[in-house]
Structures are given as structure tokens and as C-alpha cells.
Amino acid sequence: DYKKTIFLMLIFISTSAFSYNLITLPSHLSSAHAYIDAQMYKNAVQSLKKFDPKSDAQVAELNYALGKIYLGIDQPQKAISYFENSLSDAPNHYQSILGLAQAQIKLGEIKEAKRYLAKASKLTDASLEVAYHEAVIEELTGNSNLADQRLLLS
């Protein structure tokens, strides 16, 4: 089954040392991220219900995960509130800032999206992710050539 294979691959990736900024996530949160990546949102919610955050960083990760779920079910306005909650517990949570940019793109708020992408680019060396979202914005605003250039230069 395709979804099951993807899910198992994502669990492996999400528990590897290279995922989520080299921090170890509690198992329920880690599995929730894998479910989210596999677009299995109901399963992700079930995992998150079992998760008991023990620190501000874990609360930030919980809110980030909930934001990703709402983004995935095409409710960007709700996603924004969870990403903002995540940032209140961890002001430099890079993934939440990118989530805010994605939500703003879905809402058509291009200036806001660009503002978040600029902030994200200052926090990490993940220029490819930022370039991808910048290319999406260029494509949405009718600048296909610029979109291609952004991806080629990153």
C-alpha cells in the first residue's frame, strides 16, 4: 500500500538525526510529524492527543504540528494562529515561520509571505526551502522566469 510505505519511510526520516534541526522529538510528536508528511491528518491528531509537552520547545513543536495539519486541510487562517502560538514559545522556530509564509501564500497575502521568508532566511542556512517558497510567489504573481531563476540559483 502506497500510503503505508510512504508513512514508514517518513517515520524513518523523522526519527533520523537529520530531521527537525537535530533534536530528538518524543515518539508521539515524531509519529505525528510522519503522519502529517504523509497527509494522514486524522492519525496525526490521534498521536498529538497522546503527546504531553514538557517544555516550551515541545509546546512550540505541538503548535507547529497543529498548524501544519490546518495548512494541510486548507484552513490557512487557523494554521496561522497555531504557527503564531508556536513562535510565542520559541520566537526563532524556523519551521513555524515558514509555515506562516505558506499560509500567507494560500491566503494571497504575498507581502506578508515575503516578510516571513525574509525572516526565515536570516535564521538558517536552508536557502533551498526559502527559494522554493519565493519561486511559488513569483509563479503566482506571473513571474515564471524569475521563479525558475530563484530555483536555479539556490
Please render the helix and strand layout as text.
Layout: H1 2-15, H2 27-37, H3 41-49, H4 56-72, H5 76-89, H6 94-107, H7 110-123, H8 127-140, H9 144-153
Helix pairs in contact: 1-2, 2-3, 2-4, 3-4, 4-5, 4-6, 5-6, 6-7, 6-8, 7-8, 8-9
Write a concise keyword list for the protein shown above.
mainly alpha; 154 residues; 76% helix
Can you describe this structure in just a few lines?
This protein has 154 residues and is an all-alpha fold. It contains 9 helices and no strands.
Which consecutive residue ranges, at least 5 long each, have pLDDT under 50?
A: 10-24
Average per-residue pLDDT, rounded, comes to: 83
Strand-residue fraction?
under 5%
The quaternary structure here is: single chain
Number of helices: 9
| Global geometry | globular
Helix/sheet category: mainly alpha
Percent in helix: over 70%
Largest sheet composition: none
- Gyration radius over CA: 16 Å
Overall strand count: 0
Q: Write down the secondary-structure element order.
A: HHHHHHHHH
Distance between the termini: 35 Å
Describe this structure in words.
This protein is mainly α. Helix content is 76%, strand content 0%. The chain has nine helices and no strands. The protein has helices at 2-15, 27-37, 41-49, 56-72, 76-89, 94-107, 110-123, 127-140, 144-153. Helix 4 (56-72) packs parallel to helix 6 (94-107) and helix 6 (94-107) runs parallel beside helix 8 (127-140). The longest helix has 17 residues, at 56-72. It starts with a helix and ends with a helix. Mean pLDDT is 83; it is low at 10-24.
